[in-house]
Design brief:
The longest helix is centred in the first third of the chain and has 20 residues, at 106-125. 46% of the residues lie in helices and 4% in strands. It has a 3-stranded antiparallel beta sheet. It has a two-stranded antiparallel sheet with strand order 4-5. A hairpin with a 5-residue loop joins strand 4 (336-338) and strand 5 (344-346). It has helices at 2-17, 19-22, 38-44, 54-57, 74-83, 88-99, 106-125, 137-149, 154-170, 183-194, 206-214, 220-234, 239-244, 297-308, 354-367, 379-390, 395-402, 408-411, 424-427, and strands at 250-252, 267-271, 283-287, 336-338, 344-346. The relative contact order is 0.10. It is mostly helical. The termini are far apart. The chain folds into 2 domains: 2-194, no CATH class; 206-427, hpI Integrase, Chain A.
Amino acid sequence: MFDELQHGYKLAILTELGPNASARVIWTKSTIPTIQNVEEVIELMSGARPDALRVVRLRSSLSSPLDGLHRNWEATLGNLAYRVQPTLEAKSKAFNEVMAPLGSAPATRLKAWRNWRTVVTWAIQNKALDKILPMEVPTLQALLWEFTSLGAAFSTLKSIVDAIIGEHKKARLPSPVGGHFCYNKVKAILQRVLGKPHIHKLGVTRDMVVSLLRLRPPTLLAWRNQLVSVTLTMGIMRPIEGALAQSCDYTQNGDFNKGLTQFNGSSTLRTIFRKNDQIRKGHEMRFGKSADPALDINHQLGLFMDMLGTRPKPGCLKGTRPGKRCPVCPPLFPKLRLDASGNYVLAEDPTPTAALISSMVVSALKTIGVNNPAFTGMSCRMGGLTVATEAGVPESILWMQSGHAQDRAARRYVRLTDPDRLYDTWRAFKL
């Protein structure tokens, strides 16, 4: 049924566009038919008013010259500054083009644009380009009705509503989501119509961590998968944090070298950015020395880096620039490839994605007999929090290790004189 409705929706859009514009349409693969090159198509529309493009040109830039530099911005900013004219208008324009987009992550910006593009496509089909910015409540209701009838999921509609709110904020216009048709009411309506049973996810357990540490992997690839799974679980880390970790972020005997001799054989792993770390303090996960040598993650990580040749490199800048990505050191859990001799070596671009880290976790769990779709990359973070909570680790310590938002204000003022409590999350695994 939805296929027929979607096909009819596409035909209506093409008819409205006219022959010139419809011949240039490129469709996305989304459930709701969406024109990928919507800016080009609007320019080609027969009879389109000159101001029609304002609904797509008001969006913030999808990219910034500073994207992907991992806080190593000095050189790029310096070069850009030389090109900016010494006027208020030029400086304001530079801010909006270079710095303003960084108010949200690149993936968030792209997601918002994709959803707004769907709204613009709908406006073309309904002759409503002049009614979506600003948008009134009846227009939003009509849009939600049509998208629901086309088979859109709740998560898709919620993202579209978020994009509409975001575009109105950027244009400094009142949002249609408010007052009697507030955000929570819109969500409640959509959930009642489209809500589905929650897909239950499971966390990695202590027994799984022990099994992964005891397993002797046949290849460096399998070993990497096991180590990233254990590290993310005991460190209560997100997949993206594992993807961004570099070998120089990992320090063996970090606390011991500070004069705390009781932590000989332990290690720290610093993540320079976490989702709720707006104060840019970073976080350092702690991993103590296990009573059973076979279960010592510190020894295994060190041996893995030695065998792969990924120890910190000469010229490492992490010591002087701890809050920035090092330009010379490899990832802690890199992408690998087979060389001509059949040995695993670093890939040409060894930096993994969050999705690849998640697949490493799933692969590692399969090697110990856990083949269940309820386990994903986030199962590590869930499992680490669960094990630590059940072991009685105080929430304040958990939040400092996991980077969750709770107690964020208080965390600014906490200065532990002894990192012993930060090892509680590792102790919860009783290794």
